[in-house]
């Protein structure tokens, strides 16, 4: 029996021009390059220009993904953008991408799961493909986190950053549905709203009419990140009945090198099988996985046929993972 799988056809990324280094931050708040690097692994990050919006970054990343897939805008049935920092409260960033790229009139909307947004969006797009709603989807993670950072709060302003990454996924009808077949093999999505206070913004449109700024209890989030990410990667292994040694690459959300190392250790994976971009990208929330994926694929590290595991945890708390044969 054959089944439908969603296969990655192309990846793209975009980073704003402006580089903000740890040394630059030393001039802005009471911090040091050593503290930031030792606690998070970050050396520098990109910050969007004032007149550069989330949609601008999303469109640039999407254009590159289209180019790498060999498709044009109107070959794409729908667009899902994972973002916490849309240009406007509504309409979505996705409809801006649609009109600019000329994608079809299929499902086009934004997904809000903060740093887990890309894992959620990819899983939703995969469901549309598997159920025949779409044949080809553009999935983007795009964020202008700098617009919701409190630039006087050293606990958060040294961590977050801007950027966008995109993938094109396409229906492949003749998959045997095994671990050896290409495509998204499994999706694992979770949330626990009990932890919503430890990572949030200080407001929102229906409460105080503002978008709010990031407030984070870093140590608490760290603790749950290690716990829930360990659980979800174990769930992926058990669900698919595989050993971690079968995974070629771990492509984690890039929040903190210590969290990434913790998950790799849990999987017994050496760090040279992990795509790490946190040192130069910082935490770009929903954009971090597609940015890392694009770097892995477009640099030739991740090759066609490789088995990859992507995973993320973010505000909510939300967390999740996908096992994918590229
Ligand atoms: O992407 C969504 C999910 N987010 C995450 O996964 C982030 C999870 N959390 C983390 O990555 C880490 O908790 C942080 C990098 C945010 C912080 O690292 P930490 O080792 O947990 O440090 P801490 O928050 O316990 O702070 C230690 C000390 C504190 O001083 P006291 O109270 O010990 O005197 C902080 O005030 O470091 C101080 N501190 C700083 N010092 C210099 C906090 N921020 C800074 C700073 N520069 N930027």
Please provide a written account of the structure.
The structure is a single chain. The protein has ten helices and 13 strands. It has 326 residues and is of the alpha/beta class. The chain has two domains: 3-175, Peroxisomal Thiolase, Chain A, domain 1 (3-Layer(aba) Sandwich); 183-325, Peroxisomal Thiolase, Chain A, domain 1 (3-Layer(aba) Sandwich), CATH 3.40.47. It is globular and about 60 Å long. It binds oxa(dethia)-CoA (UT7). Oxa(dethia)-CoA is lined by residues 31, 35-36, 39-40, 115, 154-155, 158, 218-219, 221-222, 225, 255-256, 259, 283, 313-314.
Feature tags:
alpha/beta, five-stranded mixed sheet, 2 domains, single chain, binds oxa(dethia)-CoA, about 30% helix, Peroxisomal Thiolase, Chain A, domain 1, 10 helices, about 325 residues
* Name of the level-1 CATH class of the largest domain: Alpha Beta
Tally the helices: what do you get?
Answer: 10
Low-confidence stretches: none
CATH topology of the largest domain: Peroxisomal Thiolase, Chain A, domain 1
Shape: globular
Order of helices and strands: EEHHEHEHEHEHEEEEHEHHHEE
Please outline the major beta sheet. Answer: 5 strands, mixed
How many strand units?
Answer: 13
Beta-strand content bin: 25-35%
What structural class do helix, strand and pairing data support? alpha/beta
Percentage of helical residues?
A: 25-40%
């Amino acid at each position: 029996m054959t089944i439908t799988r969603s296969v990655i056809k192309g990846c793209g990324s975009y980073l704003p021009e402006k580089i903000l280094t740890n040394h630059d931050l030393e001039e802005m708040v009471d911090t040091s390059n050593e503290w930031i690097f030792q606690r998070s692994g970050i050396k520098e990050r990109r910050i969007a220009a004032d007149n550069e919006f989330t949609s601008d970054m999303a469109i640039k990343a999407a254009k590159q993904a289209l180019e790498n897939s060999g498709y044009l805008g109107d070959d794409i049935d729908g667009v899902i953008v994972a973002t916490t920092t849309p240009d406007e409260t509504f309409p979505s960033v996705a409809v801006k991408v649609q009109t600019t790229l000329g994608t079809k009139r299929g499902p086009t909307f934004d997904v809000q799961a903060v740093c887990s947004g890309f894992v959620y969006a990819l899983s939703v797009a995969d469901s549309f493909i598997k159920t025949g709603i779409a044949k080809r989807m553009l999935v983007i993670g795009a964020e202008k986190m700098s617009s919701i950072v409190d630039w006087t709060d050293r606990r958060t302003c040294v961590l977050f950053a801007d950027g966008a990454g995109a993938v094109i996924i396409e229906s492949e009808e003749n998959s045997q549905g095994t671990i050896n077949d290409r495509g998204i093999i499994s999706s694992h999505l979770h949330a626990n709203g009990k932890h919503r206070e430890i990572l949030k913004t200080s407001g929102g449109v229906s409460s105080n009419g503002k978008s709010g700024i990031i407030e984070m209890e870093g140590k608490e989030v760290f603790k749950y990140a290690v716990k829930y990410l360990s659980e979800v990667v174990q769930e992926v292994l058990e669900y698919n009945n595989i050993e971690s040694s079968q995974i070629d690459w771990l492509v984690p959300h890039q929040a903190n090198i210590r969290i990434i190392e913790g998950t790799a250790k849990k999987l017994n994976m050496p760090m040279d099988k992990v795509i790490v971009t946190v040192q130069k990208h910082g935490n770009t929330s929903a954009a971090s996985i597609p940015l890392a994926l694009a770097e892995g694929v477009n640099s030739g590290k991740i090759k066609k046929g490789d088995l990859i595991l992507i995973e993320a945890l973010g505000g909510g708390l939300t967390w999740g993972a996908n096992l994918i044969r590229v």
